[in-house]
Amino acid sequence: MTYVILQSCCNDASCVAVCPVDCIHPTPDEPNFMQAEMLHIDPETCIDCGACADECPVDAIQLDDDLAEDQRAYLDLNAQYYEALPMTCTSAVDNPKPWRTDDFSDLRVAVVGSGPAGFYAAKDLQTLRVAQVEVFDRLLTPYGLARFGVAPDHQATKGVTAMFQSLGKKKNLHVNLGIDVGQHISHAELLEHHDAVIYAVGASLDRQLGIEGEDLVGSHAANEFVAWYNGHPEYANHQFDLSGERAVIIGNGNVALDIARMLLANTDHLEKTDMAQHALDALQNSNIREVVVVGRRGPAQAAYTNPEILALLSHEGIDVIIDQTEAATDDITQTILDDRRTESSVRAKVRSAQEAATRIASGARKRLVLRYLHSPVKFDGREGRLDSVTLVRNRLELLEDGTVVAVRTSTTEEMKANIVFRSVGYRGSSVSDVPFDDHQGIIPNLDGKVIDPHTGEPLPGVYVTGWIKRGPTGVIGTNKQCAGQTVDQLLQDHLRGDLTAPIHPAGSVRTLIAERCPDAIGFDEWGRVDTAEQAAGAALSRPRVKFVDTESILVAARGLHDR
Ligand code: NAP
Predict the structure, then answer these.
(1) Can you tell me the distance from the alpha carbon of 56 to that of 19, in angstroms, rounded to the nearest whole number?
(2) What is the pLDDT of residue 100?
């Protein structure tokens, strides 16, 4: 028997630390860890002790005997990792942190952003027990993308918030919700009240395609739709025209697959999730029967991860259609597959696309069409509304550095659609008075230490973690290692005496906030909101019913909600 890691793997490597036989890889010490799609258990080495399954925050680990039929592909996915990459490294358990708690007894740190990146950083600092941590978020609800990004049908992934929730009870960690840094309190003021500030503000803006028709009604950024179906208060009133039969999604990353699943899912299933009620209502009335996901390169370069595509390929009630010529192995793909250094995840993507391309459609009412080797060239409309998408066929070209790029051919096709989602990645936005790299959409940094872009020198006491540090890559648990690196830098700087002590007494920042922001709430008030949401959900056999407007959240936070 062996344990198997499944689709909801969050990569936070909690399992690695408890495995007594070092059979889960990549570990955070291995070079490919930060790029890993998921972690894998070596079936040959696993001793079935179950320690990993007990530790996993998102219930992603199961015994092979207990796998459902549609989960058996993950057994192969785990094993194939070890066929390609025999184990060499030692476990992170052998590498305990060297910190002495007493060295940090007067340390005060502000963490801006309460998503996974911010909370993982806050947790590392809180664990020192003596450091004082103030977390700030501009929204009245915590957890960032774990609340507003993770798809509603991935409830297990949201399980990571239980760990963050327990942090809210710690004496040396305080959460301030509804505080916009840059508006309610400045960067300079935060530094006057703390030894250091860590920015974990994510990357919430969409990237542009730069093509004609991008601004037509019916052309939406992926982040707008994701925030809408997840009940983000700033997107709750957005409208999406789901009256047509086809939706097109440009880009084939995991966000594109999330959107495709939401558009094609059986709403009976979504009714059991925490999807915002307005989105459920709209999807119940949706006419969309076909979603076309357009990738500009081939299956070997698809941006989605194997756990996600495997889940979609076995999705009940949806025919997945792939054109055999688009999934075929061309010379460049063959060269990649022949290269022994090619990762097992790349081989798995080619294999799954080619296998799906040979399937005979069952005639299901809903279809997911996965296109490869096509880019959008323009969106056309009538009277300002989207009417069609023009795609151009690409061929692959292998550059000297090993990168595979899409090169346009002269073959184009027009596809009728009145809704399109541009799912081509996210970018960060700037914070007042903090350097910003507009080209990359991140705060410039060296391993988490924010640098002055003109001199390249670190700015004392200013740090960064998560997507605003490294760009929008990785899954939730990737942020744990990312935050660990940033916090290590901060603690080393503190020990070296490189941080400037705050000029205001401990706790005075809360007085300042109370004066400027009477509607700000703390974690206790958030606890009331959480309880009210869960109670409303319990009545409907749902995990929660989210409040989607500021007024309702404040009413619940004050304990005045009576639903
Ligand atoms: P992503 O993985 O970076 O995918 C972006 C996609 O857009 C790629 O297919 C990319 O193609 C394409 N693209 C970029 N520019 C384009 C252009 N000008 N024309 C056509 N296509 C273009 O981004 P994402 O899907 O937004 O995901 C962000 C991160 O969140 C990822 O790390 C993802 O794994 C993670 N995430 C994970 C989950 C999950 O685990 N369930 C769910 C959601 C998000 P190229 O590859 O050719 O550049």
Answers:
(1) 11
(2) 79
At 87 the pLDDT is 52
The Cα 44–Cα 82 span in angstroms is 9
Q: Is the CB of 557 under 6 A from ligand 1?
A: no
The closest alpha carbon to 134, from 105, 176, 162, 96, belongs to: 176
Q: How far apart are CA 365 and CA 264, in angstroms?
A: 10
Q: Which amino acid is at 183?
A: Q
Cα-to-centroid distance, 126 and ligand 1 (Å): 33
Q: Does the C-beta of 252 come closer than 6 Å to ligand 1?
A: yes
CA of 306 to the centre of ligand 1 (A): 13
pLDDT of residue 96: 46
Backbone region of residue 59 per phi and psi (left: phi > 0; alpha: psi in -120 to 50; beta: other values):
left
Q: Please report where in the chains the tokens 């003596």 appear, as a residue.
A: 130
Q: How much is the pLDDT for 461?
A: 97
pLDDT single digits (tens) 438-485:
999 999 999 999 999 999 999 999 999 999 999 999 888 889 889 999
Q: Using CA atoms, how far apart are residues 251 and 257, in angstroms rounded to an integer? A: 9
User: Looking at ligand 1, which residue's alpha carbon is closest to its atom 15?
Assistant: 424
User: What gap in Å lies between CA 277 and CA 519, rounded to an integer?
Assistant: 25
- pLDDT value at position 94? 36
35 alpha carbon to ligand 1 midpoint, in Å? Answer: 13
Residue ranges of the chain with pLDDT lower than 70?
A: 85-98, 561-563
- The per-residue b/e assignment along 417-427, b for 16 or more CB within 10 angstroms, e otherwise, is bbbbbbbbbbb
The atom number, within ligand 1, closest to the CA of 37 reads 34
DSSP at 211? -
- The Cα-based distances of 66 to 15, 49, 61, 119, 504 in angstroms read 19, 15, 10, 33, 57
398 C-alpha to ligand 1 centroid (Å)? 20
Cβ neighbour number for residue 49 with a 10 Å cutoff:
13
Give the global pTM.
0.90
CA-closest residue to ligand 1 atom 2: 253
303 Cβ below 6 A of ligand 1: yes
CA of residue 388 to ligand 1 center, whole Å: 23
* Run of H or E residues at 174: strand 173-177
Q: In this predicted model, what pLDDT tens digit does every residue of 293-303 receive, in sequence order?
A: 999 999 999 99
- E strands, 444-561, are 445-446, 449-451, 458-464
Q: Side-chain half-sphere of 486: how many Cα atoms within 13 Å?
A: 36
> Which residue, chain included where needed, has tokens 């590498």?
95
Distance CA 470, CA 66 (A): 37
Distance 365 CA to ligand 1 centre (A): 27
Q: Which of 395, 424, 440 to mutate to test the pocket of ligand 1 (most atoms within 8 A of CB)?
A: 424
Q: Is 250 in the pocket of ligand 1 (CB under 6 A)?
A: yes
Set out the domains of the chain in order of their start, with CATH numbers: 3-84 (3.30.70.20), 99-204+428-517 (3.40.50.720), 213-423 (3.50.50.60), 521-563 (no CATH)
Task: Using the mean position of ligand 1's atoms as its centre, give its distance from the Cα of residue 473 in Å.
Answer: 8
